[in-house]
Structures are given as C-alpha cells and as structure tokens.
Amino acid sequence: METSLTTSIKSKPSHSPLVWNYFLSTDAISGIKLPLNPRAKSFRAKPVNMKTFENSRPARAAFTLIELLVVIAIIAILASLLLPALAKAKEKGRQARCLSNQRQVGLALTLYEGDFQKLPPKASQVLDFMNPKAAGWRNNCLYAISPYLQGEQRKSSQVYVCPTAKKADLPEIRPTETSAASYFPNAVVMEMSLGHIPNPSEIIFLQECVWLISFTALRPAVGPDFGLGTANQYSYWHDGATAKQELYSNVHNAGGNLTFMDGHAEYRKAAKLRAKHFGLADGPSGKAEDTQKAASTAVYRSAFSAP
Questions:
Q1: Do residues 105 and 149 make contact, with C-beta atoms less than 8 angstroms apart?
Q2: Cβ distance 188 to 302 under 8 Å?
Q3: Where are the beta strands (DSSP E) in 135-231?
Q4: 3-state DSSP helix/strand/coil percent for the chain, to nearest 5?
Q5: What pTM, to 2 d.p., does this model score?
Q6: In terms of pLDDT, which residue wins out, 305 or 10?
Q7: Beta 204-213 vs 166-167: how paired, if at all?
Q8: Residue 17 parent element (H or E)
Q9: How many angstroms separate the CA atoms of 302 and 234, rounded?
Q10: Quick one: pLDDT at residue 44?
Q11: Exposed/middle/buried for 211, CB within 10 Å: 0-12, 13-18, 19+?
C-alpha cells in the first residue's frame, strides 16, 4: 500500500514551464504581471536610477523666521528662569565655604587662648599683616592665630577670605600675595581671657566684610584709633558711611557669617545684630541696643570688666 502511494506521488506530473513562469511573473497581491521571458527560469529586476529616485522625493520644508523666533524666545524664557536659581545655588556654596573658614578660625582662637591664657594682641590697621618684614608691622590677631590654622611651613591667609568678598576699590589696601582678609576680629575682647567674658556663645569674636583687604582691621575698633572717644571706648562695629552700602555682616543675602567667643560659627541677618552682641554697652553716643541704622561713629564702652 505504501509503495503504490509513493509511486503515484512521484508519477504526478509537475507544472509546465509556462505555468511556473506565470507564478514567477505575477504579483500575488496586485495581480500585475511583470514582463518576463517565458523561457527563462529566473528573472532579474531592472536597476533603479538613484538620482531619479531622490529627485522624486518631496523636498523638506525649512523653518520659517517666525518659527525660529518662537524657539529663541522659549529658550530665553527658560534661561531667565534657570539662571537666578543657579546663581543662588552658587552663592549658597560660597556661603558654606565661608562658614567653614570661620569655624576653623573659632577653633584656632580657642587653642590660642588655651596656650596663652588670653586672646591675641589688640593691634589694628596693620598693613600686610602676614609679613613681619613689612614697614610698621606689629604682631596682630590674624598673624598670631595663623600657626593653629596652617602650621609654620607656608604662611597663607586664604582661611581669612570669604569667596564672595570683592577686592577693595582703594589700591593702598588691596590684598597682597601673602596678606588678604575679609574677616574682622573684635577689638573689645582682645587681650582678655575667656573667663572674663560672660555668655561667650552670645559674644561675637569675628565678623565679615564685603571687601577683601590687606590689613588687620579690628571691628568694633578702638575709638581713639579714629579720633573717637577715649581709652577703652569703641566705635565702628558696623560701617554704613564709607561706601553706599553697609560693609559689615552684609555679604550673604543681607547677612553674614559670624564666629563667637565659644568657637562656634553661624549665619545671622544683619538686621538682627545689636551693638551688645559685640560686648558693647551704653556709651557717650551709642546704646547697647543699637542696630546698624545707628551712626557708624557712635561711641560705646566695653560691657566687660578689665582682665
């Protein structure tokens, strides 16, 4: 049975060449017959002229001037929204670096007082403060605590610089290669021991200035250094008279970083500062509760007894 079935399948006639060529030459979907030699066993498609093919494609439409202007306007709007946010974030980073610097200064102050049993010298207005060979140089606070910040190998004042501070406009006080500072120590507490300062966590040791200068500036300053008051009286705990803006504690978003007598550092708005925060008490022309709206030249006395 199997043999006869196989024989019948093999003996079944196949399609003739004409029928086979019909299948090859007919598109099964469209039914369109292609020109084909009925005697040929295969066919080859005619080559396509690519230039003709490319030219037959529809041309791409270019942007119009109005479309380009709309795109430019959208980009400008996005930039105006993003740039202030980026600038604010960048300033936050600079403020954080400044606060880190002041924490280091606070630690150095604590170590110095522990070694010498008193705070650094009261010398102020010392030009090129990190250079003992400079004319008129005197040992000063920033120089005295520098070994606790950087060692003796290489003198540097970078830790006294806020990244936001700008170089002073006056050429004679612009920072030098070795001496640059935007941090001003407090003359009221200089040469005292911490034991004579009540509430050290509330008394400011150091504040910052918008200018970067080359000399040690104690602020509040000793009054007679500026022809104000008498010995043990102080002035210029803030300065709104030298320039068209408040120069002290007004560096970061209407405030500034501050180092306190206990060594900690924090940020405060300038509007919250009072003369009493610098160890100042009522004096000939100043009050302990004065804000930065008071006259820069107001004279105060120290709130602390002599050491």
A1: yes
A2: yes
A3: 166-167, 181-185, 204-213, 215-216, 221-222
A4: 35, 15, 50
A5: 0.73
A6: 305
A7: parallel
A8: helix 17-25
A9: 7
A10: 54
A11: buried
